[in-house]
Amino acid sequence: MSLSPYGVLELPWWGYALVTFVTIQTMFLGVTLYLHRDQSHGGLILHPALRHLFRFWLWFSSGAVTREWVAVHRKHHACADREGDPHSPVVFGLKRVLFEGFELYREAGSDPQTIRNYGRGTPDDWLERHVYGRHAAAGIVLFVIGHLVLFGVPGIIMIAVHLSAQPFFAGGVINGLGHAVGYRSFEMPSTATNLVPWALLLGGEELHNNHHAFPRSARFAAQRWEIDIGWLWIRLFSALGLARVRWVAPRLHLQRPRRELDAETVQALFINRLHVLRAYARRVVLPVCRELKRRERPGAVLAGAPALLIRHPALLAEEARRRLRELLERYEVLRRVVEYREGLQQAWEDASAGHALAQLREWCRRAEDSGIAALREFAQGLPAYASARG
Fold first, then answer.
1. Where in the sequence is the domain holding 54, given as residue range(s)?
2. Coil, strand or helix: which one is 115?
3. Interval 271-287: pLDDT, tens
4. How far apart are CA 243 and CA 198, in angstroms?
5. Could you tell me the pTM of the whole model?
């Protein structure tokens, strides 16, 4: 009796494709729910049984070691896009991160100092010490053998596709393209971007800018039109008693404006501060730039001005900084727009709630008297902010 080249299970071509898709998606789900949202940041608490299921599958299908992955990721947040970031395209270049992201991960994960500093709180039981951590490659070996036995020759292609998925998409695309292309809902020192608003294929990790803005959030979707497939799984597991959400990022909630700012509104503005800055960019910076362009004679002086004014100062190159200085020196209205934004940030950074309320009231008074229509309308809308709702 001859051994079938198709192994124990002979499937149609779409069957092999479906099995491969499911194994990859289960791996991505383990990465985003277990390694990322549960272990790295603690915004999600998975049931112990679900934790171990993901821990086993990640070891079996990718050789991932929890402590190493968590340590590297936490260091990435601690040093985002600066010297020390284990896989930033700003530090290493986009091409290297995109195609050698897995190698950068392995190099950082093998550093004992990184593990000691950033790997605390991860599993340290018998299985982790004697199986998963000590024999990381054994899982992949068993995975390969299992595929060859079950699927034979087609299993070779399935193995190749599966084993290349995490290094390229998780290690390369998210950490590379996720800091280079896409859109930014929130400005911050990190270059992180959202690759697409409908994060369905990589567990929700495509919403990378949102995650850097709110690292602890168990939900990566921050705008109501964004979809985080990982969050949909979290809702399902929560309904089954297999997961508990500890914290989610606030979503902007507006109500009928009060007559003036009060303590509750100040708290809401603080909670929603990244949303407020986003609104400032859209409702003040962009309209002011459009009005300037309309009044100015045709020319390239104002070209790119909105991007320079909105971009976080820490991310501007020297040439961009020079152009921004020239713009602010030439156009008083732009300089005042920047000064008012800095004053707004300073108000909610004040440690005293009472002092912050007084500062914000004074800020609104001056903004309404500034003579800048967009700024006046923005200030008048601030009392509409309410406490965040999930």
1. 13-245
2. helix
3. 888 999 999 999 999 99
4. 23
5. 0.90
